[in-house]
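Q&A FORM
Asked by: J.P.
Topic: structure of DMT family transporter

PROVIDED:
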Amino acid sequence: MSKTSEVGMNVTIDGPPIKHVSHGRAVLVLATGTAFLAGTPLWVKATNMDPSTQAFLRVVIGCLLLVPFGIREMRKKERLGKKGIMLSVAAGLFLGIDFTAWNYSIFYVGAGIAAILLNLQVIIVPMLTAVFDKYKIPPVFLILVPIMTVGVLLTGGVFESAEASGGPETIYGIKTATLGTIFGLTSGICYSFYLYLSRKAGTSARKDLYVQPMMYTMAAQAIPPTIIAFFFSPRGGFDFKNGVLLNGELPLVNPETTVGDPLTAWNWFNLICLAVLGQALAWTFVQYGTVWLDPTLSAGILLLSPVTSVIIAAPLFGEIPSKLQVLGIFLILGTVAYQNGLFSMFTKSKRKHERGNPDEPLDQELIREGLAPHHDPQEVPNNPYKKHNHGPFH
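REPLIED BY: S.T.
REPLY: Here is the structure written out as tokens.
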């Protein structure tokens, strides 16, 4: 069937008409997904499982849960295109590295701090769009990058004394907090590539394909932790018996090779919570909610996730940030808030989306710029970007 968009652009949609989602329902679904995301680093630490093993089980279980819903979506709506599948798989490979590195970061610097470090994508994604899509980065970005960099170093505890961490001073000859920050940065960079590629994968004429992209992404996610486990981990493969922490702390002697406490039913219960709530439901709910909401509102809701993680990690695991870490947290969250236009909510003038803003939902950007499949900017009435000579969007 053919449908006319709000700007007068005709797009071909296979399957039943797209069912509009109310504002209240979208907010509720996104808020629920955000709450599940907030619990993710806490479940990771409570699972106390080898990072590679945990990342593998998390995505495999999550993917299996989504398969029947993905098949149902294919039958009722339409199949995700070949290019969308390829981009979803590529995005999943980066997300698999992200999950594994993030797990290491959680054990080395703490669940709350690792959740904050992940927000590096607000400066990496614009860089990717500038390099690959030739988008123009606003001048203020040159100010945001050093602020974010200082925030990351402070939050990771790089400037803290090694004794303050409470665990081993060094791992592989590197200060534990520094190594944890490196893993956190690796996680943030790979997460940025995931966001960029998954955004490209959403070029379907339908905006209500919520499950298929995540299903293909999760299937690909299982590959990196498998490679890391069997080729780079001192455990020589997946470990389904032993944890990472001993009595809640990293081993003080030979932390690189010493295994933690034996895994218990409680650890496996937290893994199930991580896979079902923190993986399958959280990511699908976020995908569902953000499509139908204003980008600024979506960003504001999602920003509650790392904040909540830091707050909850304190009583659960005794992770009390130092003064320097608190300063770093504010610098990072402030940068994220500004980059997502949250400060405009408290001012009279509303910040307009810049061309190429990676935080703008893809379906809105495609309509605004006339870049939906087989459409040209010149075909869109009253398009402010007609003068720009965009190439075809693939």
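FOLLOW-UP: Strands lie at 2-4, 10-12, 170-171, 174-175.
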